[in-house]
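**User:**
Make up any protein.

**Assistant:**
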Amino acid sequence: MKLKNKRWVISVAIIFSLCFAFVGCSNKKEKSSVETFDPKVADVMLFTKSGVKIDKDIFDDLDYSHTDVPINSDKDGEKYEKKIVDVVTNNNVKAVIISGEDKNLLKAFDDIKKKNPGILTISVVDELKGSESDISMVKSNPNIDLGFIYNSEKQNEVISEISKNMGVKSLYVYTKAKENSDPKISREIEGINKEAQELNMSVTTIVIPDSVENGKSMDDYLKSEISSKVGQNPSTVGVVGTDPEIMDGVLKLSKDMKYNVPGYIIGAKYKNDDFKKVYEDVFNLVSNKEDNEENKSIKKEKSDEEKEPSKMDIYTKNLAKSIDKLGLRGKIGMYPRSNSQVATDMALVISSEIVGVKSPVYTGYSDLFAQVMEFENLTELVNKNLNSFVVFENATTNADFFRNITVYPDIF
């Protein structure tokens, strides 16, 4: 065969081999998230749809697992629901917690109880994220042993109450023009105003002009504005903002002017962590470094018999010390955890208390379960474990196993 023909044959062979290789690759299907979904089996299994963070070191003594469920469609939801039911009922699981409002995830409670009535079932839902019919259905579901309903906007309504307790007579809310049109912020400011009227306290909303930009321009504007409001009586003035940039200026100015900052208002654009970052920067807090000098001193405060402080214990104590050094004790309010995080952590604390009974599987409304259902014991149990001030109320439903919860900001 001539050299030219040999080259042609080789070229054709290479082309065919590449084509088969590509076809082979294209036929290889990567496994979907549903197919790779493999939750760790534990006494208490927590499933969350929204990627809720958990303070893991609080639950060192509890055999639990936490699995995010990345649902993108109803079809996905049905498949995840089946997998959750299978893994929970085919193993010696004592309790299952589902945090989220997805209808498929909530259906899992019915199927779990049908297969194994002895498993403790706990639901955590945000009243605003589910439809009215879905939330109503959840509240009346007899296959949910214990449930908690929180309102992600309600945490901002308590700002008025906190302000009053601080001695505030005049509360000023600073917002930007664009944010003032955010329906979520509007509702929250309306809630603050309503509470303030009942507490005989004035609330003034100040819309920052579009001409004011972030940075030095914002700092200068806030300094001029707030100093005119504070005057000679900073202890009777409270100031809050609706975004991290405003809160950065508000907190920095509070160091010198000594007015109260009872919290902040979170709109649709931001999350609680965005505001936490501002507090950490302004008060020089290193939240993730465990071995700094402050953390070591906190750990030494505990006796050998006591449990080592959690990261959240260390975090809040470091923040309190930093604020105290500035002469602002009792004047700064903040949410170390988001509302959803507190509610989910709370479900873990309570489930661990219930299934901690020596009985291998939860088998009905035991005395301990009845005690946990009481408001006073619930509040004491949660506050002791989470360092969060939580108020429990009867949910507006015929079901006696649901509780509305309101989370208050920590005051430093």
The chain has two domains: 44-144+340-387, 154-338.
